[in-house]
Amino acid sequence: MTIDSNIPSIGLGTYMMTPEEAEEMTYEAIKVGYRHIDTAEVYRNEQGVAKGIQKAISEGIVSRSDLFITTKVFPGNEMWGQDQKTYEDVIDSLNSSLKRLELDYVDLYLIHSAHADKTRIDQWKALLELKDKKRIIFAGVANWNIKHLQEINEIGLPLPDTNQIELHPWAQQPELVKYLKENNIHIIAYSSLVPLSTWRTKEGENSLKTKDMENEGSSEESLFKLLANKYNVKESQLLLQWALQQKFAILPKTIKIPRLKENFDFSFVIDEEDMLLIQNENKGGGITWEWGDPLLTN
Ligand SMILES: NC(=O)c1ccc[n+]([C@@H]2O[C@H](COP(=O)([O-])OP(=O)(O)OC[C@H]3O[C@@H](n4cnc5c(N)ncnc54)[C@H](OP(=O)(O)O)[C@@H]3O)[C@@H](O)[C@H]2O)c1
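Above: inputs. Below: predicted complex with NAP.
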């Protein structure tokens, strides 16, 4: 069984949702047709996701086996005064997430970042053990760079099924993408909508997006606006289709019910010439994490 044939390419992102929002949006998304939900222990909304899932199951809309549920263990970051999680801590984290999610397994479990420089190999071994015991179906990482992945490879451990990374036209990560493709590591793109002027505009929704980027995103001359007009689609749809065309899974997050549909509806293809134009928009690293791009972790 491979992740490529099991992971639904469009998942609902839930970062920055309250438990109540996560409950409502999970349920509404499942009604729209989403079968993949992405949460994490640090999002503090796994209980809301659980309620949304239970509601959809109890109404007979889906059964558990139709769904692909992802959660993540936060590895611990000493720069933030946290201990690096041990092998046992990771097992405990999964058990706590399963309890909050009211599930007996998750489809995908991710180590949220590579910040635990001293224990990340042990953390990876814990995920392999959990996979072996079928508490998780697929084991992956998020925000790991080539060096982090090579560390695993060099000691003869299997590579992750997936790497979830910030990926959009302004942060295209060509070297990392090439490495992941060559090593059959499925790519999940997060924060696909960064170039939109409506991306994380509410109070407290912090990131490293600069004023210049905001201005560029709202300009009528922006390539994404021009191409969205050309294909007669929303700019959000153009950005999401750009990822889907490269076989990346996507995780658009919204708390607005009408947007669930538009983030799930793709019946157009961006032609090769326009894909090349978008390729020229790369600016370099990620800007989603307000504390700095996690791919730069040692
Ligand atoms: N592993 C990691 O480190 C990591 C990091 C970041 C994200 N993620 C995952 O990836 C998911 C997506 O990333 P993200 O939350 O950063 O950003 P995103 O999905 O790229 O964008 C969300 C932002 O765009 C707005 N939006 C959504 N759909 C829209 C549409 N159709 N038209 C206009 N605006 C729209 C949302 O506002 P409204 O909510 O008001 O609609 C929100 O401000 C997360 O929720 C999380 O599950 C993982």
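The longest helix spans residues 87-101.
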